[in-house]
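Sequence only, no structure available. Ideas?
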Amino acid sequence: MISRLRGQLAGRTPDGFVLDVNGVGYLLAATPGAVRLAEGGTEAVVETYLHVREDALQLYGFADAAERQLFLQLLTVAGIGPKVALAIVSGSPAADLRRAIVLQDTARFQAIPGVGKKTAERIVHELRDRVATADAVAIVEHGSLDARNALVELGYSVVEAEQALASVDADLPAE
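Reply:
I predicted one. Tokens follow.
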């Protein structure tokens, strides 16, 4: 398995980039964080995952080990392949997605293209015990989740609602 690559950006693709490692160009489908790392102009270190299929070898790139770990956990969920897992990991920081899993926040996953209600429920159900940590629960209290859901009902996107609540005291009631 190719676990990490160190090199310089050699080109961009719609889904990622080409990383030049000692004269060899590796095509990576990558998260936005990994793309930003590669675009830094200096040598970039990218965490990777090599997906082996019968007809292809596909290399996926991540900004850090947390993104890759969540991607690998998502691959264990029935019905989720690497493209959908990459879309999920690309949509939000890994810590936010882990928190959503722990809090059983299926709406967070349904907001991602390619993830429907049943898939979101499977993600939460199958990964809840694997990603449950005290840190994930401590980041957002249940009152904040209620406030976020109320803002979504009023027409805000999930991301907009979470950004609005980021600056609000978590001890305040949802109202």
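The two ends are 50 Å apart (CA to CA).
Hope that gets you unstuck.
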